[in-house]
Each structure stands twice: as structure tokens, then as C-alpha cells.
Amino acid sequence: MKKLKKIKQNIKQNSFLLLGILLFLSCKKAKTDDVTSRVDALPYYNEASFTPKWIDAKSDELKSFHKIPDFSLTNQNGEKITQKTFENKIYVADFFFTTCPGICPMMTKNMTLVQEAFKDDNTVLMLSHSVTPSIDSVSQLKKYAIEKSVGKNWHLATGDKKEIYDLGRKFYFVEEDLGEPKGLDDFLHTENFVLIDKNKHIRGIYNGLNKNSVIQLIADIKTLKIE
Q1: Where are the domains of the chain?
Q2: What is the pLDDT of residues 62-116, one digit of tens each?
Q3: Which of 31, 43, 98, 166 qualifies as a cystine partner to 52, CB 3.0-4.6 A?
Q4: b/e per residue, 167-191, with b = 16+ CB within 10 A?
């Protein structure tokens, strides 16, 4: 009788444990899936203050509005990547370096959340620019990609340092200069993720170190997809 009673107690305890795990997983999933964009349509951005511009998607104003220009870089597979690679794609851009001991590992971890959310969606890409391209060779980027489980929709880019720094500062506006122009000798380091739409317009900026901000980014990507 004692043995039977103990078996029943174990079954009961395991049932509560299983229920707890299921509730935890459902709550965790809800945190990601239930977040929605704060607006029905995302604003546009064209300068470093990131003041939102509310423009109708069919407006002629967008024809001359700020866009990310063409570029020529090389990814971790040794492939040339240009704006053609991202044609008719939504993408998230950031800036990092593989030997970074500080913020980059957390940024990479949070970018993985974006990758996971759209792993089966070839219309959403990620583009991480190396700010130390002389160190981050193709082989170094490939090694990092393997270590961090970087998938096919995520490009780790190396190339000309001036081109990468100009892209970051003059076009993605990822680094505030505080009124003091910066050159190649001034290190580019930022935690920002930038959301780019299919027409090369900036549609959002997010703190890549903040998981909640990245979850909001994922929601905003979903809004862009139905725009």
C-alpha cells in the first residue's frame, strides 16, 4: 500500500511539473508572438535624430526620400553582396566585429531571435557589417558564423573600411556624432539595429542589447510585410 501511495504521489508531482513547464513555454512564446507594432504603418527616417516622418506609402515624396545607397561587400561565404542581394527584401542591419569582447556577443544573440522568427522566410534578411574588416576576413567571418549558428538569410559582411564606415554614419545613422565629424581613425561602435524596407528606406531603429526592443523589431517586420 505504501509503495502504491508513493507511486501516486510521484505521478501527481510529475503532472504538476509538466503543467508548469507547458505554462512557462506558452507564456514565453506569447511574449514573442503577441507583441504587435505600436502603429498600423511604420514611419520613415532620413537623419540622425531619428525623428519619425509619417508619409503615405504611395506618396511621391518617397521618390526623393533618403535611401540606403548601393554597396559592394563580401559575406562569410566569399560571395559578393550588393543592394541587388537585398532587392525586394526587408532586412535588419547592424555593425559588429568578431573579436569584440563587449556588446557584440549580446547583439549577435539577439539578432539570432530575428533569424529564428523568420528562418523559413526568404523575404527577410540580416546584414551585419564588420567594423574591423582588416581582421574580419572571409575565413574569420565563416568561423564566427559557424560558432554562432548564422543561417543562410544572415550575411556577415567585410570589405572596404571607408565604405562600411560611411554606410554606418552617413546612411544608416547608427552613430551620433554629437556635432563632431568622425573619420576612419575614430572607431565605429554601436548597439543599434536598423530596419530597412523593400525600397531601401529606414523604417525603425532598435537597441540590439535589449531583448524587448528586438521583440518589437520582429513585430515591426511583420507589419512591414503586409504594408
Answers
A1: 1-34, 60-225
A2: 999 999 999 999 999 999 999 999 999 999 999 999 998 889 999 999 999 999 9
A3: 43
A4: bbbebbbbbeeeeeeeeeeeebbbb
d(CA 209, CA 195): 15
- The CA-based angle 26-28-34, given to 5 degrees, is 85
| 187-201 per-position pLDDT tens digit | 687 899 999 999 999
Question: Rounded CA gap, 127 and 82, in Å?
Answer: 11
Give the pLDDT mean for 26-55.
75
Instruction: Give yes or no for a contact between 192 and 206, defined as CB atoms under 8 angstroms apart.
Output: yes
Q: Rounded CA gap, 200 and 66, in Å? A: 8
Instruction: Report how far residue 214's alpha carbon sits from residue 83's, in angstroms, rounded to the nearest whole number.
Output: 24
What superfamily does domain 60-225 belong to in CATH? Glutaredoxin (3.40.30.10)
pTM of the model: 0.82
